[in-house]
Specification:
It comes from Oreochromis niloticus (Nile tilapia). Keywords: Activator, DNA-binding, Mitochondrion, Mitochondrion nucleoid, Nucleus, Phosphoprotein, Repeat, Signal, Transcription, Transcription regulation, Transit peptide. One of its GO terms (cellular component) is mitochondrial nucleoid. GO terms for molecular function: DNA binding. Residues 136-149, 244-258, 266-275 have a biased composition (Basic residues). It is a single chain. The protein is mainly α and 287 residues long. Among the domains are: 125-156; 161-221, Orthogonal Bundle (DNA Binding (I), subunit A), CATH 1.10.30.10. It is 74% helix and 0% strand. It has helices spanning 2-32, 40-44, 58-73, 79-92, 95-121, 125-153, 163-171, 180-192, 196-226, 235-261, 268-278. Helix 3 (58-73) packs across helix 5 (95-121) and helix 7 packs across helix 8. The chain is extended. 2% of the residues are buried. Mean pLDDT is 79; it is low at 1-10 and 12-46.
Length: 287
């Protein structure tokens, strides 16, 4: 047993000496090689740092300051009521009380401009172009959301539903699956397995919904014309209205011109009597 322990100890000691010699050689190599070889993260990351965040305005700075204070004073207050309370406090403050928050916002805005210029200076043309495209997409998305909200507030009718949408709304509660996505997948499979006469019921309901949408849209667009919001009317409706108005205008103009000149088409009886008077039979004199 003793020779075995002696042999194991010698081998362990030899391994430790080999490790120490390797680390010593590595240390000697690091003293010769430049430091860039031992900072691969800094050397290989060519991506620009994240863009600076936009600064908060004076009101939002006040909200951030007052949130923990109001929440501590009212532990059971809801988040919506908390914001309402802080907003009421801000409205009741004097300009002198608001001034520190607004000045801090101005200073942060100036610093943001400097940081943004510094950030954009290190971007490549491709990255700048990508940022501009993303900015346009975000602006278009915000514009679409605002327009949809405005149309909802103005009472625009909901679009007609498809046969499958009507089927899904009727059977969504008892559909298989836990998540909404799983339920929709199950309902889609059930819809595909329906017979044609079963689908016909939902197809007829969808056709009725189209008629409902058409009538409601006509009334809504007429109301939009009355309140001066022609910009919200569909293009096809505008083109139909323009053609009708143009035809009406042309007809009215033609009637005015005809009345001014006093020319009108003679009736059939008048033309027949005139032709009978002008054309006389040849005279037959006896010699």
């Amino acid at each position: 047993m003793a020779p075995y322990l002696l042999t194991a100890g010698v081998s362990l000691l030899a391994k430790s000496f080999s490790v120490l010699s390797c680390t010593g050689s590595l240390a000697r190599c690091t003293s010769v090689l430049p430091s860039a070889f031992f900072s691969p993260v800094k050397c290989l990351t060519s991506e620009a740092r994240s863009p600076p965040k936009r600064p908060l305005n004076g009101y939002m700075r006040y909200v951030q300051q007052q949130k923990p204070i109001v929440a501590r004073q009212n532990p059971e207050i809801k988040a919506v009521d908390l914001i309402k309370t802080i907003a009421q406090q801000w409205r009741s403050m004097s300009p002198e009380q608001k001034q520190p928050f607004q000045e801090a916002s101005l200073r942060a805005r100036e610093q943001f401009k400097v940081d943004l210029e510094r950030y954009q200076a290190q971007l490549t043309p491709a990255q700048l172009q990508q940022q501009a495209q993303e900015k346009r997409q975000r602006r278009a998305k915000r514009k679409a959301i605002r327009k949809k909200r405005e149309l909802t507030n103005l009472g625009k009718p909901k679009r007609p539903r498809s046969p499958f949408n009507i089927f899904m709304s009727e059977h969504f509660e008892e559909a298989k699956g836990i998540t909404s996505q799983a339920k929709m997948k199950s309902l889609l499979e059930d819809w595909r397995n329906l017979f044609s006469h079963q689908k016909k019921v939902y197809t007829q309901l969808a056709e009725d919904d189209k008629i409902r949408y058409k009538n409601e849209m006509k009334s809504w667009e007429d109301h939009m014309v009355e309140i001066g919001r022609e910009d919200l009317i569909r293009e096809q409706t505008l083109s139909i209205k323009k053609r009708a108005a143009k035809a009406k205008k042309v007809t009215k103009k033609a009637k005015t011109v005809k009345k001014a000149t006093g020319t009108s088409k003679p009736s059939k009886k008048t033309t027949k009597s005139r032709s009978a008077k002008t054309v006389s039979p040849p005279s037959t004199k006896k010699t």
